[in-house]
Amino acid sequence: MAILVNKNTRVLVQGITGREGSFHTKLMLEYGTKIVAGVTPGKGGLDVHGVPVYDSVLEALDEQGSIDASIVFVPARFASEAVYEALENGIKLVVVITEGIPLYDELLLIRYAKSLDVRIIGPNTPGIIVPGEAKIGIMPAHVFKPGRVGIVSRSGTLTYEISREISKKGYGASTVVGIGGDPIVGLDFIEIYQLFSTDPYTDAVVLIGEIGGDMEERFAKYYVSLNRKKPVIAYIAGKTAPPGKRMGHAGAIISMGIGDYASKKKALEDAGIPVADKPSEIPLLLSKILKR
Amino acid sequence: MKLFEYEAKNIAKAYGIRVPRGEVAKTPTEAREIAGRIGRGVVLKAQILVGGRGLAGAVKFAEKPSDAYEVANRLLGSKIRGEEVKMILVEERICVAKEHYLSLTVDRSARTLVYLVSSLGGVEVEDLVKKHPDKLLKLSVDPLTGYKHYYSRVAGEFLGVARGGGGNLDHIMATMYKIMRDYDAELVEFNPLALECGGGLIALDAKIVIDDNSLYRHPELREKSTRELAIYEQKARELGFSYIELDGNIGVIANGAGLTMATMDTILLYGGKPANFLDIGGGASRDRVKDAVKLLLSHPNVKVLLINIFGGITRCDEVAWGIAEALEEAHISKPIVVRMLGTNEEEGRKILLEKGLKVYNEIDDAVAKAVELAEV
């Protein structure tokens, strides 16, 4: 069991006929994800690895019945249109893989999604994986093992690295959520932690942050205010990042005096959250609070 | 992408916000002529993109046109915080009664836009946020509904300009919102926004930062987007890499922004210093890897090259071929440390072994080796 998705989640792939969309549809199917339909405007009637393709989300719903979640591979210029189509058709969880969506479009999209009670994961995310059950994302499946650690991250490959370290030492993950590397994302650390905190299959949470913004600081403040809490361990990337430079991710930039490594580390440690100095230290910190 | 002050002021002026009269000079003679046309005391401001210009000596005053010539002569061609001064904005001097801070930016946590307002004009926003949070007013704007006029009443009361002199505050705030939208900006800042001796608000400095993801909607700005970059940053940008120059001697190539930063940080932890941030992105082909390796091998500051790949979409055999081909073509012998895991790692390992390169499994081991080699 897990948060957000499970093996029964019925998934739509938007942008299914593109190079990335088609490739990852295959991998997700192999992992056991229940992909019921794909949408690419103008490509209705095709079939991608056995998944029927429709011209619109409405048509996919008419033909396939209920859809719980959508994963979006649509290029940046058209991605927000695709997300609007999903959320206005009542899909309650949208995972936006696309990188490079204009900031203002993201603002509007995420404000609107919140008003409709739709959960957006991303944009610019590797997605969500429930090891052994379902994968709605692009991560390499083999590094994840089932277990009782919840992982929430602003990064992609770094999440794979840390998940591998965790698996190597005999731990596993209940759910792994990439929240996205953009300045504006749908669900943040607090919102994902809240889901983990009520999930009976999660004993501890690993939080993977990076420089830029104040999401880690706000999480620390929130965590301190809780009476009952699950243990959290953190890693923050970007100790060596200079201010004013965008470190790959659109959101990874120290600007206007906000978002540096020292401030995040201090806020988390003051909240009683140990911060690992390097990825390989995370299992060590986990071993202090968890049984294998 | 950051605009130069004069560009931001031209935009503000075109939208009806008052800015000082002025022109850009590229030579001391031009500075003298502009000062002559203005006909009174002038301010000369170096047009560079680094912050904190006042303290760095990039802003000077001149009473007469001949003084303006002298000041321009000293400023042009000099380096301020590492950036060469190529242009100077020569402006009329304004009689100032009071200075304020006003900006519009993005509030990541609330997923809204936000006005930042302060009576401490001329103070860098970094200091306002950290040292004077009590003197800083934040006004959230929901992007779904846009600007509302009451914001300016609240801001005006906070600044003490509600009546009289601050009559154009509402126009300025509404216009900032319009500029933000029209230009896909992530920051529009007037600091200081001054109350003139004769009344009325005027933007003495202006800063506009455009969202990089939106540049495709602004082709006229896109051409300018590489101008603030150092030579290797420009080369890397042309090759399509995300690249940042740093001051160490261990070149870093990795896939994914988070992993690249984590690699740099681990280098620091082991006592070394990274020379750069280079993210080859997801699913890099052998040609891309080759370009990245050749770029860093040719960099004079790079003593050792550390490559850290966690293969997901990226295939280790492609990476290995890219490294091998770069070594053949580059003819530069610098030590290379490779750590590679994930998709097709066995094939990748074999390819590199044939070239005499050992492949590490763990970041820590690879970093320790790179740091050791960089110290020799």
Summarize the model shown.
The complex is a heterodimer of chains A (292) and B (376). Helices cover 33% and strands 22% of the residues of chain A.
Indicate the CATH architecture of the largest domain in chain A: 3-Layer(aba) Sandwich
Q: What is the distance, rounded to the nearest whole angstrom, between the alpha carbons of the first and last residues of chain A? A: 18 Å
Q: Sheet bearing the most strands of chain A, described? A: 7 strands, mixed
Q: Within the largest sheet of chain A, what's the order of strands?
A: 3-4-2-1-5-6-7
Share of helix of chain B, binned: 25-40%
Strand content of chain B: 25-35%
The largest chain-to-chain contact, stated as pair and per-chain residue counts, equals: A-B, 62 and 60 residues
What name does the CATH topology of the largest domain in chain B carry? Answer: Rossmann fold
Strand residue percentage of chain A: 15-25%
Between the first and last Cα atoms of chain B, what is the distance in angstroms?
39 Å
Description of the molecule:
The complex is a heterodimer of chains A (292) and B (376). Chain A has 292 residues and is an alpha/beta fold. Chain A folds into 2 domains: 10-121, NAD(P)-binding Rossmann-like Domain (Rossmann fold, 3-Layer(aba) Sandwich); 139-289, Rossmann fold, CATH 3.40.50. In chain A, 33% of the residues lie in helices and 22% in strands. Chain A has 9 helices and 14 strands. In chain A, the strands form 2 sheets. Chain A has a 7-stranded mixed beta sheet with strand order 3-4-2-1-5-6-7. Chain A has a 7-stranded mixed beta sheet with strand order 9-8-11-10-12-13-14, sandwiched between helices. The longest helix of chain A is centred in the first third of the chain and has 13 residues, at 19-31. Chain A is globular, with a radius of gyration of 19 Å. Chain A starts with 9 loop residues before the first strand and ends with a helix. Chain B is an alpha+beta fold. Chain B contains 13 helices and 18 strands. Chain B has helices at 5-14, 28-38, 65-75, 125-131, 150-159, 169-182, 219-222, 231-238, 257-269, 286-297, 316-330, 345-354, 363-375, and strands spanning 22-25, 42-46, 59-62, 79-80, 83-84, 88-92, 96-107, 112-118, 136-141, 185-196, 201-203, 206-210, 242-245, 250-254, 276-279, 304-311, 336-342, 359-360. In chain B, the strands form 5 sheets. In chain B, strands 7, 8, 9, 10, 11 and 12 form a 6-stranded antiparallel beta sheet that branches. A 4-stranded antiparallel beta sheet of chain B has the order 1-6-2-3, with helices on one face. In chain B, helix 2 (28-38) runs antiparallel to helix 3, helix 10 packs across helix 11 and helix 11 runs parallel beside helix 12. At the A-B interface, helix 4 and helix 5 of A face helix 4 and helix 9 of B.
